[in-house]
Design brief:
- This protein has 277 residues and is mostly helical.
- It has two domains: 7-171, Serine Threonine Protein Phosphatase 5, Tetratricopeptide repeat (Alpha Horseshoe); 215-273, no CATH class.
- It has helices at residues 2-24, 31-36, 50-57, 60-68, 83-93, 98-131, 137-206, 215-228, 238-251, 253-264, and strands spanning 230-234, 270-273.
- The protein has a two-stranded parallel ribbon with strand order 1-2.
- Helix 3 (50-57) packs antiparallel against helix 4.
- It is rod-shaped, with a radius of gyration of 43 Å.
Length: 277
């Protein structure tokens, strides 16, 4: 008696844990509990099975595993809905939910296969009853059942391959979008750097006069530009500093080129400290 009570409690614990896991956890964490479950079509409140709950939640992995373990798609709950009608209702309510569409495809496939198996068994039973002795009838039914089970396995494998292919395509699309976004981000950053460089160049060139063909005027503009970049921090020797720049400019062609370059470099800032006499 105690053994029966213990076994019943253990079965109830497994059923409750599976129901909670179906709501809150992925399938991989509960496969061992499914192996311990004696009746895959065990009834919960409102006469719902695990398959009913999985279909209602749109849990593709759970629905696929329950169907593979032989869950009945024809069992109805208190509202007279079976797994197929429930899956169709979920797709109507959530037309953009891809997972619910996959659930409907799974349930539809298994439901149709179950109907085919049932019709074949009925036809096989009828033929065996009419044409074969009662001893041969069980063998005929077993062979038909084996054939139907093998067909169902092939159908399920094909569906799994299709789902895997769809998942790989989705991953490839997501990866492609990430790559495109990364390239776009790099292009925007590069463009920002280019705009910054152009802006700085324009600011630096704004204070420089346009080139002229008059050597004396070019000399004067170069010296004026150097004077604007020169800050005398002690004393008042503006004329002496101007004279120094003019002598450097007139010294030779190489020195003149250096003075021209320095006068055009907007980052240059000359500070001169004359000691007082």
């Amino acid at each position: 008696m105690a053994s029966n009570i213990s076994a019943s409690s253990a079965e109830q614990f497994v059923e409750e844990r599976l129901l909670i896991g179906l709501f809150a956890s992925p399938l991989l964490q509960h496969k061992e509990l499914l192996d311990m479950l004696e009746d895959i079509d065990v009834r919960y409140p409102r006469q719902r099975t695990l398959l009913h709950v999985g279909v209602g939640l749109g849990k593709t992995d759970w629905v696929e595993e329950l169907l593979a373990r032989g869950a009945d798609t024809d069992i109805t709950d208190d509202s007279q809905q079976n797994a197929l009608s429930s899956a169709e209702e979920m797709v109507r309510q959530f037309p953009d939910d891809v997972e619910r569409s996959k659930v409907l495809n799974l349930v539809t496939l298994v439901h149709r296969r179950d109907q085919v198996i049932l019709r074949r068994l009925e036809a096989s039973s009828s033929r065996c009853t009419d044409n074969v002795t009662p001893v041969a009838s069980p063998e005929c039914g077993i062979e038909s059942l084996k054939f139907s089970v093998d067909s169902l396995r092939r159908e399920m494998k094909s569906l799994v391959r299709q789902l895997s292919s769809s998942l790989e395509e989705l991953k490839a699309q997501v990866c492609g979008r990430d790559t495109l976004l990364r390239y776009l981000e790099e292009a925007v950053a590069s463009t920002a750097e280019d705009v910054t460089c152009i802006k700085c160049g324009l600011i630096g060139e704004a204070s420089i006069s346009q080139p002229t063909s008059d050597p004396s005027r070019a000399r004067q503009e170069c010296v004026d530009a150097m004077m604007r970049k020169t800050r005398i921090v002690y004393g008042d020797r503006v004329d002496e500093m101007r004279g120094l720049y003019e002598r450097l400019y007139d010294e030779d062609e190489c020195t003149a080129c250096i003075i021209k370059f320095l006068s055009r470099d907007y980052r240059l800032k000359v500070m001169v400290d004359f000691e007082s006499k």
